Amino acid sequence: xxxxxxxxxxxxxxxxxxxxxxxxxxxxxxxxxxxxxxxxxxxxxxxxxxxxxxxxxxxxxxxxxxxxxxxxxxxxxxxxxxxxxxxxxxxxxxxxxxxxxxxxxxxxxxxxxxxxxxxxxxxxxxxxxxxxxxxxxxxxxxxxxxxxxxxxxxxxxxxxxxxxxxxxxxxxxxxxxxxxxxxxxxxxxxxxxxxxxxxxxxxxxxxxxxxxxxxxxxxxxxxxxxxxxxxxxxxxxxxxxxxxxxxxxxxxxxxxxxxxxxxxxxxxxxxxxxxxxxxxxxxxxxxxxxxxxxxxxxxxxxxxxxxxxxxxxxxxxxxxxxxxxxxxxxxxxxxxxxxxxxxxxxxxxxxxxxxxxxxxxxxxxxxxxxxxxxxxxxxxxxxxxxxxxxxxxxxxxxxxxxxxxxxxxxxx
Length: 412
Prior knowledge:
The protein is α/β, with parallel strands linked by helices. The chain contains 13 helices and twelve strands.
């Protein structure tokens, strides 16, 4: 009998041990998050580093890598170092989607940094939402990023394209008192969205209809036909929504055709490279700037950024760093702040929760504040408008007063 009791006790002990092991194993598995090890957090990033828009991806990638170096040199995030895996999307939606799938499924990154323009980004959004990969879009203004609302998609430096329309309309009509307006816009996602929304809000808020609108493609080098249409209607003001290479050519060709009216560009084309290329033809060129300070500012924070960037890139071409370097840098610090708040037991869900606690955060005065909530993930609602005077971008004292209709939609 004692032998039987001993056998039963041994079986019960073994069963308890087995149950305990089974209970322990899932918990241990849950402690391992994709892209996170005891000493590393792997971030994915994509953008164009080849093709006509390469300056976008090169800038955003280099700015991001500078921030990562500084963060890692300071000890990382809860003892973990950040690592960026970057893929070239060639400014193509299909290539961007392939790049993102590789980063998620093969490289198994923890989160995604969207370091490309609107056109490629649109090709990735549906996949990333379905995969529930936390994604921080640094540059793209395409509405699909944050509209409709999705828990895993955040927009940083670039505001939503509908907001560009609101800000541009208020700047043009309330600040510059413009009424006779012509528009040239690219057919790419970014330029088309900004143009459509600017045209819509001009009419909705102020009853102002464009005198004419003509389109062009990224990579075009002759804008004479479109500019002659502009000249034919003789507007008071011209909106030209293009990338840096196109606006540089357009400014020169417009002045050669005797067009002297003020030309306003998009945030994507407010760049020192425009002045370097167009020279005196850029005088009076204006547009919105998405960062806190312009790149040639003598403010200590900007001087510190430029010096750190130049140390990593001593042989950089003229026109760098650019806006995309600056935004890649500042937005990486926003993500780093959220990673810190998420705590040492890092998961994707905790990162999303932490991002939603970000309020008026900026790494320094080279950035504008970022705020996210549980009901909207648009971090930036403002731009600083600039004008070229004596071959430098000078800030204008424009302060928008109208509340964004985007926030009204999200609240409802």
